[in-house]
Queue: 2 jobs
Job 1
Amino acid sequence: MDSINNARCQLCKETFELDAKQQQFIAPLLAKGQRFIMIECPSCGSSTQYVKAEQPPITAPQPANYRCPISQCAGWVDLIDEQSPPFWGCGECGSVWYERKNLQKEITAIMSLYPYRASSYKQLNGDWIPGSLNSEPANYEELVAKESPDGHDELVRG
Ligand SMILES: [Zn+2]
Ligand SMILES: [Zn+2]
């Protein structure tokens, strides 16, 4: 699907496909770099500025958050940066990290204990970053639930 042929009406917010005439009309203008182009919306009939419809993501969506590296927790770790100091926190088990390197260390530790945990992360410039959800085993949550508790009950992990 060629996304330039799909537009979104600014008035009725309908996404529509440009007809042949509209495609012929906008293609040379876009090629010239023109940004402000008026076309008619087939849904509501009003003139609307040509706005490219959003392109569907090409690859599978990448999770922006880390899988929580605490044993028995299959939650997600978010970077909370609206607060000072910023920290990483897991909404499921409540663990908190103030130092990025401590979160990184804990990821390395859980991976060496449970090899399937490695599928949740990948390496980038010597750091662990969130991996692709598709690479996790289908029974990830079940596996995690069977882990032994880590015997560390402080919520602040470092
Ligand atoms: Zn419309
Ligand atoms: Zn957690």
Job 2
Amino acid sequence: MSLVLGDDVESLLAAANPQPSALLAEMTEHGDDRNFPTLGPDAGRFLRLLATLADADRVFEFGSGFGYSAAWFLPALGSEGELVLTDYDEQNLAEAREFLDRLDPAADVHYEAGDAIETFERYDGPFDVVLLDHDKERYAEAFDQVVEDLAPGGVVVADNIMQGPVNTADVTDALRGGDPVDDATAGVAAYVERVRDDPDFETAVVPLGEGLAVSTPTR
Ligand SMILES: C[S@@+](CC[C@H](N)C(=O)[O-])C[C@H]1O[C@@H](n2cnc3c(N)ncnc32)[C@H](O)[C@@H]1O
């Protein structure tokens, strides 16, 4: 994982925040071993906080990998909680099931293999929190669907606004009108413009993990 924050800030966060659970530490190691791009502990902790603040019962993830972000969300959900994981890769979802079963075997978790946007269409809303962490080229398309099914006071979070398949300088340049260097950069810049210019949403870009865009309806 490439981080936006410098080493000194990273060290402060590691010292100031509670240690992640043993299971999350194991999942971090698993991600590192696989060289798999999880969103990391700082973003994960922030997602859990957002879910708690939104009093979330229902969470939908576009792009769940092996369940790392879901493992941050799950403890924040109420007893009626429902968590939907999506991924193209069935092996990722099988690993997610193993990890999340250990975290809470009774939790209502759905593992949906296939395209996340098509899966979202099959579910009835509303969702309290939605995480976008799938193809960057399709973030804006996903957001257009999610707005229809977002609970009042709900939150949409998009990862990789600053790092990952993009970098901060390239996204900044694209937002200033430059030609995007690739499809991922074009997708992230289009997403930021989409949420920034929507009067029905309040959005803040937050430099945690690889950069998050956090949006909530204004009314
Ligand atoms: C960055 S990883 C997800 C990481 C996960 N949220 C975490 O923090 O550990 C992105 C995942 O999205 C999946 N993916 C990409 N585009 C997708 C799509 N359109 N539908 C479903 N899964 C997708 C990939 O297979 C990959 O596992």
